[in-house]
Design a protein that fits this description.
homodimer; 252 residues; 12 helices; 13% strand
Chain lengths: 252, 252
Amino acid sequence: MNPIEDFFISRKTVRKYDHSKSIEPALIAELVNAARMAPNTGNMQLYSVVVTTGADEIAALAREGHFNQPASAGAQALLTFCVDMRRFARWCGLNGTASGLGNLQGFVWSVMDTTIFAQQFVTLAELRGLGTCYLGTTTYNAEAIGRRLDLPQGVLPLITVSLGWPAEEGDRKQRLPLGAVLHFGRYADPTDDELAAIYRATEESPEARRFVEENGKPSLAHVFTEVRYPKESAETFSNIYKEEIIKAGIKI
Amino acid sequence: MNPIEDFFISRKTVRKYDHSKSIEPALIAELVNAARMAPNTGNMQLYSVVVTTGADEIAALAREGHFNQPASAGAQALLTFCVDMRRFARWCGLNGTASGLGNLQGFVWSVMDTTIFAQQFVTLAELRGLGTCYLGTTTYNAEAIGRRLDLPQGVLPLITVSLGWPAEEGDRKQRLPLGAVLHFGRYADPTDDELAAIYRATEESPEARRFVEENGKPSLAHVFTEVRYPKESAETFSNIYKEEIIKAGIKI
């Protein structure tokens, strides 16, 4: 095993941060500067990141945008990575032409490029010893986040990463067996028995057993579909985010 | 400058590969194994990757899926990263419940998680000295790619990465000034003059001047809107991909 791969395999999400050691804005700028050299579609750079530091600002963004979840309220910095159609569209306008990206294709490109940018930042931050956590709440509260960060029309929050020096060992999640996600040549669709086997170790983990018991559900799958990600919530949040996408001038 | 950041800053996209040195499937599996430890939403792992190796298979996929562009036809391996709603949905079904992710929110999660997975793979491959290139053609030809790779219902191609040992120095793209994408505290919307200044170095680069001249256009922005990414094409490809998304059981 190559040492760098070992680092990537043993990486962990960190949700508690050590405020006794500060994070200089210059360090964040240095990491963002390196991260943005990751690939993007046609070099259009359809993204921006807004960095929130300072206790009061973080508290307000955590409250208004992230349901005060501990990884947000306890962060040393919050980075809001945004789909940014505005800069490119304004540049086209300045030159007397019009961007043609206000559609599903443009949206998918921008989401991919924003995500690549965010993930490269996360990797670089982790390589520096920082802890990070993706917050799942950004699309739910895109409007409130946009107001708080003064996002103008055409700039849409997509991903928030919380950042800090680790104050805990972190959370290393089990993954499905490699063969579940990696296919050579053709997609190998498992039989029902094979599929059950793929999920067995996950279902039998102490964490999963605790989830099932605490929630009084018949299976781990039910915890996902009835507690963590129920259809009704996903549809509500789909409608909320779709409105924000449309307000950003993107017709999907 | 930290050496690891220097590596990330100087990274380059590589489109020509040295076939005199082979890539073992075991190496690809090792890199995928490390890449999939990147974060994902709720540990649902809504992605798969199909690896294409072998001259005939690569030639067929390049022809049917990627307009035979050189980085695809000349690759030593092609990795097709897919939105995979199927595995999770089938597992829910096996347990007598139903996934609630066939909507915009589920789609956005899966696109982000698939992209994080792909980018982590790209980073790991580059750290090993391999060359990579994201192909922009995957969403255009999702149906043909799905047929070629036996993708079942619920599995949707999103990203293709071409892979090989570098046979060229690679292509290091200029980026806009850091301040264009990085904002502290609030989004700082530039004035028109500031915006023009942000794009000046890009517009004055030899590559941009050549693009403008070769295409006989009044500005670089026109090259983007009329040659590289015209609205009509983006809308056509939006409709094509939307159909594939719907066929995958996702209502966006």
